[in-house]
Structure formats: structure tokens, C-alpha cells
Amino acid sequence: MARLRGGAVIAVVMVFAVAGCKDLQDKGSPGAPGTGGGGGGAALTAADALTVKGRAPKTGYTRGKFGSAWADTDSNSCDTRDDILKRDLKDVKFTDGDCKVSSGVLDPDPYSGKDITYKRGRSLVDIDHMVALSDAWQTGAKYWDASKRIALANDPLNLLAVDASANRGKGDGDTATWLPPAKAYRCTYVAAQVAVKKKYGLWVTAAEKAAMKKVLASCPGQKLPAGGNPTKAPSRFRAS
Questions:
Q1: Where are the beta strands (DSSP E) in 55-183?
Q2: pLDDT at 84 over 90
Q3: How far apart are CA 228 and CA 221, in angstroms?
Q4: Mean of pLDDT values over 131-158
Q5: Does residue 215 have a pLDDT over 70?
Q6: Burial of 9 (0-12, 13-18, 19+ CB in 10 A)
Q7: What angle do the packed helices 186-200 and 206-217 form, to 10 degrees?
Q8: Cβ atoms of 99 and 78 closer than 8 Å
Q9: Is it the case that residue 206 has pLDDT exceeding 90?
Q10: Quick check: pTM over 0.70?
Q11: Which of 151, 180, 171, 169 is CA-nearest to residue 34?
């Protein structure tokens, strides 16, 4: 009997060890695209559940409707742009303290697959809104209050440091009109867009949803990213 009890204990320990390893593998930086989220297939399931509507007119859209650029909505005394540079670059160096990023490396850039050196003052690295703000405006955000729009514009879940030229080629395209040239990143990219649209209650066009499902069907185990900031910015922030 003692031998059986010992064997049972060993079996239980092995089960917990395996579970512990899986938990560690599933963890990632809060708000970082492609990390966290639910189990296998969660991204495709979430994409299928998004509301489909036609795109609303772009009338009335300005960047100012989403507040001033890179507002410190998480109140960590660093602006949002520097927060994302710190999260996404390697070999990061600062101008002063640990906020103002002076240099680093995108290794690799998720959109192009190239290694890109960032130096402050040059235009080689952009912070992309994966769901573009004008796209968000036309799929629900024009009806929100300013607090929610400001939150979206500064939510790490929707932000990614990328090659500036690739980002500017994207413009305000959605999944139906633009995908990263680096095919290996497309599932992660689309899953992030799905997560943002789900979190903020944005709708998709029929063509956009079809494109999302086509990409995610090629990676049926793709998880849905999670985390980021609350969907309401602190009351001290204003938008035009």
C-alpha cells in the first residue's frame, strides 16, 4: 500500500509539473500583440463572432478626436510612444532616466522581417495602430465619447513598433486591404486586430471578416491576445 501511495504522489507531482510548464509558456508581456488570451482557436472563434456592418462615412474624422498623440493614459510618467518602444525594441538605451528611448533595434521588424535600428529623431520606426484610428472611426468609434477614443489610441494591445515604410504603405487599411509583407506574422497581426475590435465593440465589414477568417484558418490554434489598458481614459484627458 505504501508503494501505491508513493506512486500516486509521484503521478500528481508530474501532472502539476506539466501544468506549470504550460502556464509559463502561455505568459507574455501585458498588452503585447500575440500573447496571453484564451486557448487554441480563440482568435478564429472571436473573428467569427464580430458584428458585420457597412463602413460608416469618414466625415468628421480627425486625429484630434482621439486626443493628443501618445498621452500618458496609464499614468506611469512615460508617454505611450516610449512605452511601446521600450516593450518592442531590443538593446534599448535612454536619453535620461528610463522613459525617453534614444536607441534600440527592431530584431526583427514584425511587418518586413528586417532588422531595423531605431535612433531618436529619425523616421525608420513608427508606432502602428494595428486597428487604424480612421478605420475605428468608421466602424463605431465616431459614436463613442472622447474617453473611449483616447483609450483606444493609447492602448498597448493596439500598438506595435514597426518599420516606418511598411506602416505608411498600410495607411488606414483593414485586413481586407492590407497584410504585413512578412507572411509569418500575419496570423499574429490579424489576431491582434480581432482582439482590439472585440474589446472595444468595433464592427467589421463583410470583406474584412472574410479576410480575417481566411488568414486565421491557416493557423487554427492561434490564440487571442489579451491585456492592455482600460477602455476608458482618465478624466483629465481631452479630445478635440
A1: 90-94, 101-106, 116-119, 125-129, 159-163
A2: yes
A3: 22
A4: 98
A5: yes
A6: exposed
A7: 130
A8: yes
A9: yes
A10: yes
A11: 180
